[in-house]
Amino acid sequence: MITVEWESEGLQTVGIVMIICASLKLLHLLGLIDFSEDNVEDEMETATVRHRPEALELLEAQTKFTKKELQILYRGFKNECPSGIVNEETFKDIYAQFFPQGDASTYAHFLFNAFDTDHDGSVSFEDFVIGLSTLLRGTIQEKLNWAFNLYDINKDGYITKEEMFDIIKSIYDMMGKCTYPLVREETPRQHVENFFQKMDINKDGVVTIEEFIESCQKDENIMCSMQLFENVI
For the whole prediction, is pTM greater than 0.85? Predict the structure, then answer.
């Protein structure tokens, strides 16, 4: 069981870290962190799936993975998702397994929407590896842009206090009894109030991407968290 100790300002980092951690958990459960030396050269060509991925050369150009890494990622993805796509219920099932002491469904919903960049109700292999490439190997700017998109629930270019609360509350709900000490009901709201005040630099009631990036770049904990998993693959 994962236990997280919540400090008074700890949520400043948790929202960012959990984006990356949860993506790695998804990667593990899909069987993608399994870098055996089996020959998978032909799998991209011979696999019979409903959704066929883009050519490896194109994905290699769009991501920061090598051709070999993409082949291995695809093998795991195909084995767990023979249709070639992942739907939202799969995301929810995955996080329910990793966080049985809490309710991960809302966070899984938000994360799914962040990966589903074309908003067609499914995450293809291309969607997944492009998002994963950003989270694991993107620049700080790219990672923060991705995180902003997660928090910007209605995709209007701004983060409101309620949107930030919804994301942070979903993280608390997901962790459930895995936190120490157990949080009080009002704790998520208090943390959001404190953090939002820091991010809303011009005090207009919303956080723009410029304010989000500037605030995060000034936070040493967040900057460290963005580099935790860069060498996982």
Answer: no
